[in-house]
Design goal:
alpha+beta; 24% helix; binds coenzyme A
């Protein structure tokens, strides 16, 4: 059976998620991204998943109340028990039909957890396309640059 390495979560942004100017809080977008990252890993590994790391969190354009936000999560690299996920976020205005436009992106790492509460092995990622090989190389590059926790 083909590996399930992609998933998209969409949500309409409502007034309680925004500031007085109608701009949606970054934390609301991040929460959806984290959920999409965790969900794609759960789908892949079929285990409990925790988030270990988020790199390169960037908000590149405002998100407004009434926008439909779509988070696309793609597993791009798999270690023994961890999975690196590229998450991209696009927003489309439901009022004007304008978009979609890229509003955020991040690279997150999630770990598969077994019944004993310890990291559990996941199956290796099969790279089938040129795009998958390109993203795998990007993740490997970023893994090599990783630093330990702050403080
Ligand atoms: C993530 C966690 C399970 C790792 O536990 P650990 O005892 O360090 O386990 P290990 O050292 O065996 O590492 C397991 C894997 O996680 C990876 N990992 C651990 N910490 C990491 C970090 N900060 N960044 C990236 N990867 C990390 C390791 O590289 C390893 O990957 P691999 O098996 O593919 O080689 C543990 O740190 C934890 O529970 N963190 C809290 C997670 C959490 O609550 N998240 C928020 C809510 S979901």
């Amino acid at each position: 059976m083909a590996q399930r390495t992609e998933l998209t979560l969409s949500q309409i942004m409502l007034p309680h998620q925004a500031n007085l100017g109608g701009h949606v809080h970054g934390g609301e977008i991040f929460k959806l991204m984290d959920m999409a990252g965790g969900a794609v890993c759960q789908q892949y590994a079929n285990t409990v998943i925790v988030t270990a790391r988020v790199d390169e969190m960037q908000f590149t354009a405002p998100v407004l109340v009434g926008d439909c936000v779509s988070c696309k999560a793609r597993i791009i690299c798999v270690g023994k028990t961890s999975m690196d996920v590229l998450i991209t976020v696009d927003a489309e205005s439901l009022k004007t039909g304008e978009g979609p436009r890229r509003v955020a992106s991040a690279l997150s790492t999630h770990v598969s957890i077994g019944g004993d509460g310890r990291p559990k092995k996941v199956e290796p990622l099969v790279l089938e396309s040129e795009e998958q090989r390109r993203l795998f190389a990007l993740a490997q590059e970023r893994r090599a640059e990783r630093r330990g926790p702050l403080g």
